[in-house]
C-alpha cells in the first residue's frame, strides 16, 4: 500500500514537473530571469559590504518562502512568491541605499579592485609582531592624550563598506607610533577623519564613517 502511494506521489511530481515546461512561456522566462537578476544584485551588494550573515539570512528567507510555495500552491502562488521576493529584496536595498547609490555611480573601477585586493590580502604575523603593533598604537594614543590631541582610530575586521575607505586617502602603511601621531597632528591634511587599521597595516586615513 505504501509502495503504491509512493508511486502515485512520484508520478504526480513528474507530471507536475513536465507540466511546468508545457505551460512555460517567454514572458514567464523573462520574469524568472529578472527575479534571479534581482537576487544576484542584492547578494552582490551584501557581499561587497561584508554583510555575510545578512546575506545568509536573505537566502534563508527566500528558500523558506519557496518551500512554503511548494507545500501549498493554492495559498502561495507564483505571483505571490514574486511579490514576496521583491519585498524582501527591496528591504535589503533600503538598508544599503547609500552603498547602492555609490556603487551605481562609482566610475573608479581600478581603484575598487585595488581596495578589494588589499582588503582580502592576509599575512601570517608572529606573536611578537602583533604585540609590537599593539604597543605602537597604545603608545601613540597615550602621547596624543597627553597633548590633548583628538584621534579616531578604527580597528577593522574587514567588515567596513568599501565606500568608507574610498572617502579617505589610501596608505597601506605599516603601523608605527610616529606615523599615527603625524596623521593626527593638528591642522595636518588627514587629521580630520578616521584612521582605518586592519591587521598590521594602516589602510587609510582621513576617512568619514557613516
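-> sequence recovered:
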Amino acid at each position: 500500500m505504501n509502495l503504491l502511494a509512493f508511486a502515485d506521489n512520484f508520478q504526480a511530481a513528474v507530471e507536475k514537473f513536465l507540466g511546468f515546461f508545457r505551460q512555460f512561456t517567454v514572458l514567464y522566462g523573462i520574469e524568472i530571469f529578472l527575479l534571479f537578476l534581482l537576487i544576484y544584485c542584492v547578494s552582490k551588494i551584501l557581499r561587497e559590504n561584508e554583510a555575510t550573515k545578512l546575506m545568509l539570512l536573505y537566502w534563508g528567507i527566500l528558500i523558506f518562502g519557496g518551500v512554503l510555495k511548494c507545500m501549498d500552491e493554492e495559498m502561495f502562488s507564483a505571483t505571490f512568491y514574486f511579490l514576496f521576493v521583491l519585498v524582501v529584496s527591496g528591504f535589503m536595498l533600503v538598508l544599503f541605499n547609500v552603498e547602492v547609490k555609490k556603487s551605481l555611480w562609482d566610475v573608479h573601477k581600478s581603484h575598487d579592485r585595488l581596495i578589494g585586493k588589499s582588503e582580502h590580502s592576509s599575512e601570517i604575523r608572529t606573536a611578537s609582531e602583533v604585540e609590537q603593533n599593539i604597543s605602537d598604537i597604545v603608545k601613540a594614543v597615550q602621547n596624543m592624550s597627553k597633548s590633548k590631541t583628538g584621534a579616531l582610530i578604527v580597528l577593522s575586521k574587514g567588515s567596513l563598506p568599501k565606500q568608507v575607505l574610498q572617502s579617505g586617502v589610501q596608505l597601506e602603511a605599516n603601523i608605527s607610533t610616529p606615523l599615527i601621531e603625524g596623521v593626527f597632528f593638528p591642522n595636518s591634511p588627514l587629521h580630520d577623519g578616521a584612521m582605518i587599521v586592519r591587521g598590521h597595516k594602516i589602510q587609510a586615513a582621513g576617512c568619514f564613517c557613516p
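Residues 107-122 have pLDDT under 50 and may be disordered.
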